[in-house]
Specification:
The protein is of the alpha/beta class and 326 residues long. 43% of the residues lie in helices and 12% in strands. Helix 1 (26-37) crosses helix 7 (258-270) and helix 5 packs across helix 9.
């Protein structure tokens, strides 16, 4: 693909507001860059302002090059509309502060791309007492979505939440128990990192289903994508493990570039044929079946109920009542 994306001919209105979590690196960087180059106003939501500003500088340099090459679909504005907003998904407090800041800005929101994540992290718990991959990959994104959905409902007729999941969601099989979500039956030495990473990606797909069930008559749809094996900064999650780091050096030879990975997210986010489409998990930009656990309504609702209990101090009674188990 050579850094280009196949949807580059689809213009996006500059009035379309897009939030990309983890938009400063990897798949998120390419996603945010191309959304902006196609004309959207993009907010990069991540922890480090320094890294975000460096990413924005690179994006603007790429943009000028694409304009000079007259790349189809690239906006002809003088500059990209990209900005940074602080978001630390390992902190529910930081996540809620992001929500409050965005809400106070009075802007609409058309596309929320839940892209940020960590992989194969050792057993650790956040300041909120949650297993780190569970919170960073899923729970904080759920909190973000719950609070931003009212804004999205007021923001036009085609609004989308994109959950960047993984083939790893297939690692889980029945029986399923919410009692084991936090991994407290394990210690640091026997914590099955691959399984709990896959679980965190499974919860995103469960989120797609339980949200769409409640959003069925609205202007917001939720989709999930599997970008495949992509050469990103994934090693940040397992730098403590020399064998995993060494194994990745071998596996990465078979991986996609971040631009190729971003194409899957972009398809779900801007493909006009997907307006109003729900409950689809995309792999290679094509619908793919999720596993039996992901499709189980009882499991979907039990994870939602448990998640709301984890978010109790950061959601209102109105949100709690709207999303309680049905």
């Amino acid at each position: 693909m050579g850094g280009k994306i196949s949807f580059q001919g689809i213009p996006i209105s500059k009035d379309r507001i897009v939030v990309v979590t983890g938009g400063n690196t990897g798949i998120g960087y390419e996603t945010a860059k191309w959304m902006a180059m196609l004309g959207a106003s993009v907010i990069i939501a991540c922890r480090s302002e320094k890294r975000a500003q460096e990413a924005i500088t690179r994006m603007k340099s790429d943009f000028q090059r694409e304009k000079e090459q007259k790349t189809e679909g690239v906006t002809q504005t003088d500059d990209l509309s990209v900005e940074f907003m602080k978001l630390d998904l390992s902190s529910l407090k930081s996540t809620k502060e992001f929500v409050d800041q965005f809400t106070e800005s009075g802007r609409p929101l058309n596309t929320l791309i839940c892209n940020a994540g960590i992989a194969f992290h050792p057993l650790e718990y956040t300041e909120d007492g949650n297993e780190t991959m569970f919170q960073v990959n899923y729970l904080s994104h759920l909190l973000l979505t719950l609070h931003l959905l009212p804004i999205m409902r007021r923001s036009g007729d085609d609004n989308r939440v994109i959950l960047v999941s993984s083939h790893g969601h297939n690692n889980h099989s029945t029986p399923f128990s919410v009692d084991k979500i936090q991994g407290k039956q394990h210690n640091a030495d026997n914590f099955p990192r691959f399984k709990y990473y896959g679980n965190s990606k499974l919860y995103q797909i469960l989120q797609m289903y339980f949200m769409n069930r409640r959003l069925a008559d609205s202007n917001v749809c939720v989709l999930s994508v599997n970008p495949g094996l992509v050469d990103t900064e994934i090693t940040r999650g397992f730098q403590d493990s020399s064998w995993m780091t060494w194994s990745w050096k071998i596996v990465r030879a078979f991986s996609k570039s971040p631009a190729e990975g971003a194409e899957h997210t972009l398809n779900a986010a801007i493909n006009p044929a997907l307006k109003g489409v729900r409950d689809v998990y995309f792999q290679e930009c094509k619908p793919k079946n999720t596993n039996a656990v992901a499709r189980n309504k009882d499991i979907q609702e039990s994870v939602l109920e448990y998640s709301l209990s984890c978010l109790n101090d950061y959601i209102t009674d109105d949100i709690r009542n709207e999303w309680k188990t049905k």
